[in-house]
Amino acid sequence: MKAIRRFTVRTVLPERLAAVGDLAANLRWSWHEPTRRLFERVDPVRWEALGHDPIALLGEVDPARLEQLAADEHFVADAEALRADLHAYLAEPRWYQGLENAPARIAYFSPEFGIASAIPQYSGGLGILAGDHLKSASDLGVPLIGVGLFYRAGYFRQAIDRDGWQKETYPLIDPDGLPMQMLREHDGTAVRITLALPGGDAMHARVWQMAVGRVVLLLLDTDIPENSDALRGVTDRLYGGGGEHRLLQELLLGIGGVRAIKSYLEVSGTPAPEVFHTNEGHAGFLGLERISDLIAEGLSFDEALQVVRAGTLFTTHTPVPAGIDRFENGLIERYFSTGLLPGVDVHDVLGLGREDYDGGDPGVFNMAVMGLRLAQRANGVSQLHGDVSRGMFGQLWPGFDQADVPITSVTNGVHAPTWTDPLMVRLVHEKLGTYETSTADWASDAISDEELWFVRRSMREQLVTDARARVAAAWSEENGSVAPPSWMNELLDPDVLTIGFARRVPTYKRLTLMLHDEARLRALLTDPERPVQLVIAGKSHPADDGGKALIQKLVQFSQDPELRRRIVFLPNYDIAMARLLYPGTDIWLNNPLRPLEACGTSGMKAALNGSLNLSILDGWWNEYYDAENGWAIPTADSAGDDAERDMLEANAMYDLIEHQIAPRFYDRDADGLPRRWLQNIRHTLSTLSPELSADRMVAEYVQRLYMPAADAQRTIIADHHAPARELSAWKSRVRAGWSSLSVAHVESGGVESPQLGDALHVRAHIDLGSLEPDDVSVDVVFGRADEGDDLADVRTQALQLVSHEIGQPATFAGTVPLERSGSFGYNVRVTPRHALLANPAELGLVAVAH
Ligand SMILES: *Cc1c(COP(=O)(O)O)cnc(C)c1O
User: Fold this and answer.
1) What is the pTM for the complete model shown?
2) Ligand 1 cavity residues, CB under 6 Å
3) Which end of the chain is more exposed for a tag (fewer CB within 10 A), N or C?
C-alpha cells in the first residue's frame, strides 16, 4: 500500500547529544570535514546509504545507538568540541571585519542554491555557484543574506532506461526533513508574505530559514493551505512550466524576497542590506518592490529608481539569448495593474523591460534588460564573458564602443573546502600542517611525488568504486532482483588515464563531440599500451528531446561490449557524484562552442584536486590556461560551417589525447612515477588553487562592487534622498538637452613631425545647446589607428574648460602625450558628467566629432 502522506518525525536526541543536533542544524557540516566525520561515526553504514545527510541520519538511527553514543565520553567530548568550534566560527572576526565602511549587509538573490546533495534545490552551475558564494561569504565573514525559493520537488532525478533514454522523477522533499526552520513573528505565528494578484486574488508564502555557516538563507514557499491548489504549486519545482508559472515564481522571488527580508529584519533586529545582488535576471523584480517602498516615502518613480540603482548589482550568466527570461507584455501588464506594487505605474514597469533598440521585440518584457536598468553596476562571470556581454547588451548604450559598455566581469570561483577531496586535505594537513589547500605550497618537497601520486591514484580508485556501485544500482533499478552482470565489477580501471566530462546537455556544450570519429575514439579507449577511459554524466532539460537523444547516443556507444569497461555514462549527476568525479579524473574535458560557456566551474573543481584541463579556450580557461596546467583545444573560428568546426575541433582533441596527454601520463620512471605529469599537477595546484577559489571571487565582489555600491547608496539617500531627487532632475534635463549638443570643431597642434615624447595640444569647441559646461565631460580618446581608422588600445584624457561665452561654443583644451610610436589616431568625445554616475556610459548618451 502507498502512503497518502508522508512526513518526518524529528528525533529527540538524548540531552548529552545536544551538540550533535546543533551541528546538524547549521549547514557548515556540508563543507566541514571534521563535522562530517563525527556524523559518520554515528552510523557509518547509514551515513553512506543516506547520502551524507545528517538530518536523515539522526532521524533513522536506532535510539539504542543514540543512547550508546550518549554514554560514550569520547564521542560526547568530540561533539562538544566541534560545537564550540562552530560557535567560534560564527562569532569571531574574519577577513571582512578588517574592512572599513563595508556594507552592513548584502542581500543575494538567486533562483537556486546548491549547497549539499541532501538539499536538491539546484539544477546546475548557477545554483552551485550561488551555494559556493554563500559558503565563501561565510568563511570570509561577509554579512550576506541569501534569498531564494523552496521547491517541493527541486530538480529532477535522472535515470536512463534500457534504450538509453533519460527518465525524470521528481521526489518530493519534506521540509521537516531538512535543516531549516520556519520564520516566525515574536509571538510565534508563522510569517506570511502576501502578493496581490489579478482579480483580487492573492498569493501567500511562508519563509524557511537556513543557516549556512554565518549566512542566513531565506526560502519562500507557497505550499500552504491559504493558497488555492494552483498557487500552492508555484514553488512546486525548479524552473517548472513556462510563461505564467515562471512569472509567478519570479514575482515571489523578487518582490516576496524583499518582503521576506523586511520580516526577517523585524524579527531579528539585525541591520538592513545596503546592497542588493541579483544572481541572473530571475530575481529582478526585487528592484520594483524597493521602488514601491521609496514611493511610499514620497519619492517619484524616477527618483526612487536612482536610489535602487545605486545599491544594486546585476550579474549576468548567459551569453545565450535563449537563456534570458522574456515575458509577453500583456502578461506583465495584467500582473502589475493590480495592487501588487502600491504606487508603481504599470507603464513605468513595462518601460524597464522594453527592448526598445534595433533588433529588439517591442512586444516582450526582457528580464535581463530590466536587470541592467535597475542596477548601476553589472558584471559577467569571466573576462571573455564580460566582453561577450558588452557586445550582447551593447544596444542599451548606443553610440559607445563595445569596450565602453558598463558591464565589468568577476570570474567565478569555487568553494575549496567543499570541492577539495578530503584525501588532498589530509595530505596537506599531514605534510604542511595546514587545512588551507588553496594557499598551500604544493611545490614543497615536504610532499613527495610518491605521496602525491598515491593520493591521486586513491582518488581515481574512489571514483572507480563509486562508478561501479552506481552502474550496478541503476541496473538493479531497471531489472529488479536479477544480479548485475559480472563485467560491471570490472568497469573502469584505477590505473588507466581517466577523462571526465559532465555537464548539462544544451547544444552548445556539445556532449557528443567526442563521438565525432567513433573509430578514433574506439582506438584511444582500447589502446593496448596507453588506454584511456571516459566517465561521463549530465542531465538534459526534461523538455529537450534533442539533449536526450545526445545522451542516448553516448549511452548506446558505451554499451558496446568491447568498450563498456572503458566508457561509462553515470546517471543522475549531482553534488554527491561531482565530489568524487572531479578528484578522480586525470583530465577534465570541456568542449563548448566558444564563446558560449560563460565561465564553467567544473574544470575549476577538477583543478583544485590536481586534475589537468583539456578544454576549448572558453570561459575561465581562456584567461587561466598557461600550457603547464593542461591543454587548449584550438578553436576553429575560420571553419566554414558548424560541421566543419566540429570536425576540426574534435580532431584537435583526439590529437592532443593521443600525442601529448597519453604519452605524458604513461611516461613512468624506474619508480613507476610520471614525473613530468606530476610537475603539471603541482603547477596546477599551486598557481590555480588561490585563483579559482570562491574566496578570491567573493573578495573581488566585495571590494570592486559591493563597497562602491554601498557608498553610492549611502550618498544618494543622505539628507532625505535629496541627491536622488537632484540626480533624477539632472538626468531628465540632460536627456532632454542632449540632442542640442554637438562637437562644433576640433583643432590640434604642437606637433610638426611628431616624435615619441612630443605632446599633442587639442582644443575642442563644443556647442552645448541647453546644457552647461559642468554637465559634460569632454575627453580626447586616442590610441593606435588601423587602416579603417578604428582605434585600438584606447585611452582617454580629459580636456579642461578654457572659455565659455554666452552664445558661443564652449572651448575645452588639453594635451595628450605621444608615448608610443606608430600610427596614432584620436577623437573627441562628450559624455554626461555627474558625481553620482558610476560610469561615463551610464546614460547611454555620447557625442563625438565627425
Ligand atoms: C559544478 C557543477 C556544475 C556546473 O559545472 P559547469 O562546468 O559550470 O557547467 C553542474 N552540476 C554540478 C553537480 C556541479 O557540481
Assistant:
1) 0.96
2) 124-125, 128, 503, 573-575, 578, 600-602, 605
3) N
